[in-house]
Amino acid sequence: MKTLLLTIAGVLLLSGTTFAQENSPSSEKETSYKWQMRLRGVGVVPHNRANISTIGGQIDVNANFIPELDFTYFFTKNFAAELILGTSKHSVGTLGSDLSAINGPNNADVDLGSVWLLPPTLNFQYHHKIGEVFKPYVGLGVNYTIFYNEKSGVAQDISYDNKFGWGYQFGFDIDITEKFFINVDFKKLFLETDVTVNATNLLPEGSPEGSKLAIPAKVKLDPMLIGFGLGMRF
């Protein structure tokens, strides 16, 4: 009897130890990786609105397709921070502007060249796991948009103010292996800038010497970013 009791106690102790190891957080594969990196292809679709003084009309900014890189750090199994890096080039113009003040048509489209945008974005995320491989998430964050390499089109010069903005995202990861996964991501960024167009070169002949034509505008871009890519945990 004593031997039997010792045997049963040994089995129970071994079983309890095995159960604790299998259910310990340190044994969960996903918690062994604190970092994720994703490379996506992203469609950037601006939702343009503007208040253009002097000539009126609306702003026209084209869509684009770009590569995007992000890094995610997990504070816990569910909470993380993601830094998103990507840059895009857009052609810019106005639609239906009134150029009669400079002897032009009263309903014209104006080419304002192009500009590059760099909006590094930091999102704070909540991740969840459904089943073995499906991992949806949501995020909310801030960005700072830098405008660079401006081309002025028909105007003499054009400038854009760098601005802070905010955005939200949702998406999901689908595991391929323990380390590698597929990602689908949707983001909405709220970006706006103050634009000043120096159109002095378009003044009609005979304008008083020293005359200048500056056209200010408040522009909202508010792009959607729809991405698909691959990720790796490390």
TrEMBL record:
Annotated signal peptide: 1-20
Keywords tagged on the record: Signal
Top-level lineage group: Bacteria
Record InterPro entries: OMP/PagP_B-barrel, OMPW
Gene3D superfamilies: 2.40.160.20
Source species: Mesonia hippocampi
Keyword Cell division recorded: no
Listed SUPFAM superfamilies: OMPA-like
A GO biological-process term: transmembrane transport
Name of this chain's protein: Outer membrane protein
Pfam families: OmpW
A single GO cellular-component term on record: outer membrane
